[in-house]
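Curious: explain these tokens?
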Amino acid sequence: EVYFKNLSKQKQKEVMEKNVNNHKLRVCVATCNRADYSKLAPIMFGIKAEPQFFELDVVVLGSHLIDDYGNTYRMIEQDDFDIHTRLHTIVRGEDEAAMVESVGLALVKLPDVLNRLKPDVMIVHGDRFDALALATSAALMNIRILHIEGGEVSGTIDDSIRHAITKLAHYHVCCTRSAEQHLIAMCEDHDRILLAGCPSYDKLLSAKNKDYMSIIRMWLGEDVKTRDYIVALQHPVTTDIKHSIKMFELTLDALISFNKRTLVLFPNVDAGDKEMVRVMRKKGIEHHPNFRAVKHVPFDQFIQLVAHAGCMIGNSSCGVREVGAFGTPVINLGTRQTGRETGENVLHVRDADTQDKILHALQLQFGKQYPCSKIYGDGNAVPRILKFLKSIDLKEPLQKKFCFPPVKDNISQDIDHILETQSALAVDLGGTNLRVAIVSMKGEIVKKYTQLNPKTYEDRLELILKMCVEAAAEAVNVNCRILGVGISTGGRVNPREGIVLHSTKLIQEWSSVDLRTPISDALHLPVWVDNDGNCAALAERKFGHGKGIENFVTLITGTGIGGGIIHQHELIHGSSFCAAELGHIVVSLDGPECLCGSQGCIEAYASGIALQREAKKLHDEDLLLVEGMSMKKEEVVSAAHLIQAAKLGNTKADGILRTAGTALGLGVVNILHTMNPSLVILSGILASHYVNAVKDVINRQALSSVKTVDVVVSNLADPALLGAASLVLDYTTRRIY
């Protein structure tokens, strides 16, 4: 594997050197409308910033040049791009024939332009009929095509156009793992597919902190507040125009009844768009006090509007793709986006055949705030795409190659210049240290960061955010794709809301703390939080002895005693999230006092704190040290000294350890009689010292029907971090919407 990885890097380096020394790559970017320009602009800026590698030619056509749609070519000029050619390719009309004629007109005009430009690569985006004309022209004129956003699935004629462009294209940049797998299943060459993410995410993930109130007021009025307005964007469905017009009427009726300030954008140039505009005017939307109807909003400003909206409604791909990055609620109407991957912020109304259905959806969604989703990108797409472009060898044969079945199953393909691993950011909040790690799908800790855990809430949260941001940035350098953040912390946790209800005494100022919201907002990633004992059980289920076991229990033996219970393959939380507090099983009515305030808990006998307490007592009585042991004057007595003394023959120390092992064993017997698991896993630093004592107690005290249980010591080096990672990895790999 290392050999082939090095070979790939060497090949990429040679290709780049050839391109630098011999030829600048001449790239033609053709943009047809406001939507595709939002995806192409970040790439265009990246190409323009590296003139030593690239020459950029910009061709503008389609609805960019139509006054009814805002003459959006002006925003390209405002971005300081030189437009080489403007092509008027739209044939006015209101039916499907107009689209066909527009494609034909583009095919007539494009050959002359491409003959003059002679680009090495043509970048084509998406699934519009204009893009099909571009791809057809370039393919027939032997120009290499790089297709952006291939492999995705939606519910209209766009699907067929998108896949047709895929078959014409030589190189593919896709946004999601599913899209990558679709391209592979369509027999595209594995080595010419780049999983980069959506280019627009590079811009929008950094946009939310900018001044937005002035933008909101400019488009919606001075009296509008954040989260108290709606953005509506609905297009005709060309395969069922009459139904989509009817649905648009119902949407406007519902918005009028809902009585919130609403920004309505005009639809795309498609068969049926003029009829939709007529519906708007018939209902007086342009003059209604609650509505603002506009032909176009610049993408920078549109980002701010949807990021702070109370809801977005319609059938635009923007709703199911980009808006998820902000956690804004979305109502997706009809079938136009059927098949798209979506975040939990999207509510689908497939059969929006009554006003009441849409109104009810508005009542459900308006004003909510969901976790930010990064299904379609992580903000680093453009650097990957530029690297991909630099690796193109113009001396390679132009003829496409198809990789027919059998197809490699469910693995990320190495395309010479990038090999990314699905990973999670794992956070472990311990009593002493705060640790953050990048953990791969296979349970490998790729990178780990450790800092002392601050004593105050503010400092602790600030340090968590700082470490997570650093780790997320480093993930790009080590070729890891972060799917989310998992947090393991002591105390009682509400995992549904991501809130620490109250913590152990070891972690100060850590009660009623919402961890999910600030971390999700800062990183634009989904965040999961759970108790450290539960995380240890999840780690065993995914990576350890519990893999494939239906019912098992994990006991953590460390500073405290904790655990987690897996029953029928699922983690048990309990009605008030207090299940599996195994350290507080009482094994003696008059035992030592526990930190919880009770007496005789397992933790009061067998935890590291309990052993340290007994070790100090022996030391104070000069009964701890035996021959072969020594302690410095300033050295703090710990549980480790007690264990060392027992090994060297100190009978009192050995007796304390036996008592601790017996207490732990009695607790395990109680668990066996209650849950009847088939496996007990002892985890933590003290596990190996207790395992034999626990087995002895089970043989003496347990019912015969449970004595056959297996008791093993965990083989996981870091169960807290691995468990936090599994919160992310288990969910993101089985997510079904």
In short: The first helix runs from residue 2 to 22.
